[in-house]
Amino acid sequence: MRDAPDAPSVQTVPSPHHPHRGQHQAESLGVGLVVALLVALAVTGLVVSIFLYWLFGVFDRQEKAQQVPLTSIQQPGPQTPEPRLQGIPTYHATSPAEDRVQMQARNSHILTTYGPSPEDGYARIPIDRAMDLVVEKNLLTPQSQSKGGKR
User: Fold this and answer.
1) Residues in CB range of 86: below 8 A, 6 or more apart
2) Which has the closest alpha carbon to 111: 131, 97, 137, 136?
3) Which of 16, 37, 78, 91 could form a disulfide with 85 if both were Cys (CB 3.0 to 4.6 A apart)?
């Protein structure tokens, strides 16, 4: 069976009689055109991003407007499990500096006021009064000296 004369032959190298042998493509894309296409692509991407940001903002506002609170009572924020991270408003009510100030105020109150003691049968007195009583009743005794002499 003969091949049809219209069938193209597969050649990797054009024949020496080929009309375009030894020539190259004279027209090519210039650098300016490639840069212009890249700039147009970037601008298009920016415009689409801005449009989508605006569109999702509209959707979010519409959804919030349609949400009806289930009760007129103000709901507390979500409770997070212990230990809560300090310095993050949604996780901890106070910052470390505020905690330190509160602790100092609590300790100062305990050291300067009268009140019940955590132990049964005792009362808490201010530290200044306690020091005066120790000196007044001579409750401080010098430490006993060791056998070897001076300390």
Assistant:
1) 92, 94, 95, 96, 99
2) 131
3) 91
End-to-end Cα spacing for the chain: 124
Tokens in use for 146? 């060791």
Backbone dihedral region for residue 25 (phi beyond 0: left; psi -120 to 50: alpha; all else: beta): beta
Backbone angles phi, psi at 51, to 5 degrees: -60, -45
- Give the residues of the chain that fall short of pLDDT 50: 11, 144-149, 151
DSSP code, position 78: P
The pTM of the whole model exceeds 0.85: no
Q: How far is CA 97 from CA 34, 69, 80, 87, 92, in A?
A: 58, 36, 21, 9, 13
